[in-house]
Write a structure and sequence with these properties.
By secondary structure, this protein is of the alpha/beta class. It folds into 4 domains: 4-54, Single Sheet (N-terminal domain of TfIIb); 65-134 and 342-498 and 509-514, Rossmann fold, CATH 3.40.50.740; 137-336, Dimethylsulfoxide Reductase, domain 2; 585-703, Barwin-like endoglucanases (Beta Barrel). The protein is globular, with a radius of gyration of 24 Å. Bound molecules: ligand MGD (2 copies), iron/sulfur cluster and molybdenum atom. Iron/sulfur cluster is lined by residues 8, 10-11, 13-15, 38, 42-43, 45-46, 177-179. GO terms for molecular function: 4 iron, 4 sulfur cluster binding; metal ion binding; molybdopterin cofactor binding; NADH dehydrogenase activity.
Amino acid sequence: MTAVDTHCPYCALQCATTLHPVERPGAVAVQPREFPTNRGGLCRKGWTAPEVLTVPDRLTKPLVRNAAGDLVETSWDEALDFVADRIRSLQTAYGDDAVAVFGGGGLTNEKAYALGKFARVTLRTSNVDYNGRFCMSSAAAATNRAFGIDRGLPFPLTDLGGAGAILLVGSNIAETMPPAVAHLDAARAAGGLLVVDPRRTATAGLVDEGAGVHLQPTPGTDLALVLSLTHVVLQEGLADTAYLQERTDDPDGLFRSTAGWWPERAERVTGVPAVTIRQAARLLAAAAPVHGGAGAFILTGRGAEQHSKGTDTVTACINLALALGLPGRLGSGYGCITGQGNGQGGREHGQKADQLPGYRSIADPAARAHVAGVWGVDPDDLPGPGRSAVELINALGTPEGPRALLVHGSNLLVSAPRLASVREHLAALDLLVVADVVPSETALIADVVFPVTQWAEEDGTMTSLEGRVLRRRAAVTPPGEVRSDLAIFAGLAERLRPATPFSTDPAEVFEELRLASAGGIADYAGISWARLDADEALFWPCPEESHPGTPRLFADRFGTPDGRARVIAVDHRPVADDLRGEAPLYLVTGRLLQHYQSGAQTRRVVELAEAEPEVFAEIHPRVAAQLGVSDGRPVRLTTARGSMVLPARVTTDVRPDTVFVPFHFGGEGSVNELTNDALDPVSKMPEFKACAVELAAASLSAKGIPA
Ligand SMILES: Nc1nc2c(c(=O)[nH]1)N[C@H]1C(S)=C(S)[C@@H](COP(=O)(O)OP(=O)(O)OC[C@H]3O[C@@H](n4cnc5c(=O)[nH]c(N)nc54)[C@H](O)[C@@H]3O)O[C@H]1N2
Ligand SMILES: Nc1nc2c(c(=O)[nH]1)N[C@H]1C(S)=C(S)[C@@H](COP(=O)(O)OP(=O)(O)OC[C@H]3O[C@@H](n4cnc5c(=O)[nH]c(N)nc54)[C@H](O)[C@@H]3O)O[C@H]1N2
Ligand code: SF4
Ligand SMILES: [Mo]
């Protein structure tokens, strides 16, 4: 092996790396590579990613559960035959929708595309969705309805570098994308870094004394806060009225929907002082182009989005950006910080319940005709829109719901909300098939487990948080009998519906993806692996080989039929499972720098597991004193869904009405035992970020806590 240029397997920043040969088979060493997003930097997860390639319990052979209930090794042919037979008999008995597929935003574009095609063409099921529903779906829904296009950042990340102010709503970017912090430097130096988070996170810590503002609202109140920021902008005459007239459909709607949110009222709801709200609005406005500022950005993360009103909160952020004339202006804008490695590409190629490749709607007859043409099938044979992730999980094993589930790239038994229900529904299935690289919590309860390739073992493409298409390159041969997810789709298609064969060659799959996406919103027709190999600077849409790609969207028009942004009136509403006498605190969940998602990968990396070995609850000293609990001692958290015991981390970084727990741990350490699966009505995003919780001191003998 020679040195191979690729990108980190984890988050959407997709830091550029070079892999170097080492002596051990299947192993590599990693070096960061100069690239606009990471500027030669890597976080701790990126540095240690090679270890996941050779973890001792790496899956290397297909496994099938035997009569005694154990997962035992088998051959690919036997495992594929078994799964195909079960699918055939379940679909014969219960119909095509009896089989469901669940995808992931970590899959390459090629895998995501093949997964959607496999569900629609081979299985003919409408039951397909993916973990992006848990991730940025509220921002996607909001940008789709306001701008007509959902590309997380409609501008290159480096554009942030010139801004005078950046408002970060519910993003802890300093821990979730550490190398990206460099792009905040100018705004920080200008005193324009504005961070909205109920915790004093590492990101809030970037706000030095007098160099910006940390707004620390009550969890679940961002919508009121942003409505009030907009109120101040409009009342103080700071809006870009010419922009509102020219580029939006309803400037008056903006005034009407924010008129009642004067800062003193918002203070009562959010806990953020009215004076701070005014200060933040003025700082942001001063950087807007209409006032001759250096540029301003509003960016949202999961803290704003993962709520039952996430779509409306993002809409309020977009409305604030429109009031200031930011979207589509060079050096300003609104963006959602997409999370997973291919969180952007994963939402474009048809893994979503309502979507076909090219970010097309599965309900649109023209879109169906185009994609069916590429697939060589009759448009009438394509299923219609299906259930969203949580609705799909809650239907599994019910009389009307699917009897079988195939999971590719998600560890549902850790990362989905209200785990008791997830466990019950997975157990009620006749067939659970999990494709993974390691025996994740979900793989361990499956009937069949397929061992698949991961980043350094495969070729493909990923689309980063900027909408930039990147090459993932194979550097090593996968161990044992590991195959790509593409081989699973091909193997099952050959057995179930051989008339439409599936390629196992990612380069061929990409060529087909180009055709299927052509003419769609996310148009990849002009992007080829050869062009990417020459220069990874192609942002979609890129309709022709001669097209330079589109780093910046919306300069002249938005993606709506008349080219104007839609102003959608939204109003504040409380958290679905709100505080009450017996549950007086908010439980919020999120991430630690050291772990990735369900932790399936990073909990297996020794250095990361040693740094953060177990779950904990951040509580304020005042709460700790009330409970008589000191740092490291066990507390019991109880919500309407469940209860868990975990050590307290006593810190003034969290509000006294808030408890924070990271979601990266499995089994008894899974905070999703407690979270609420109440859904946003538009995006169907579950309310991971806030629910009412009761706290109590726990006994020393409580499970899992050493005395
Ligand atoms: N280290 C690490 N990095 C990651 C990941 C990971 O698992 N680990 N995952 C990747 C993925 S898929 C994603 S989606 C991104 C997520 O990246 P972020 O959005 O930055 O991550 P979170 O920690 O989920 O949430 C951000 C913040 O929201 C705050 N928060 C909670 N409730 C509220 C609220 O009501 N309002 C506001 N304003 N804030 C609130 C939390 O305190 C938290 O600090 O990270 C990506 N990068
Ligand atoms: N309480 C709470 N819960 C949350 C969140 C939160 O903030 N709070 N955040 C949510 C968010 S934003 C997200 S994105 C989800 C993520 O949660 P999950 O969907 O569980 O994501 P991962 O842990 O990344 O799981 C990916 C799995 O796929 C495997 N894998 C990696 N590469 C491949 C591949 O190429 N093919 C296949 N078949 N498998 C592969 C990995 O080993 C891992 O087991 O969690 C959500 N859950
Ligand atoms: S920031 Fe994201 S892409 Fe970069 S090294 Fe860390 S996990 Fe990997
Ligand atoms: Mo995510």
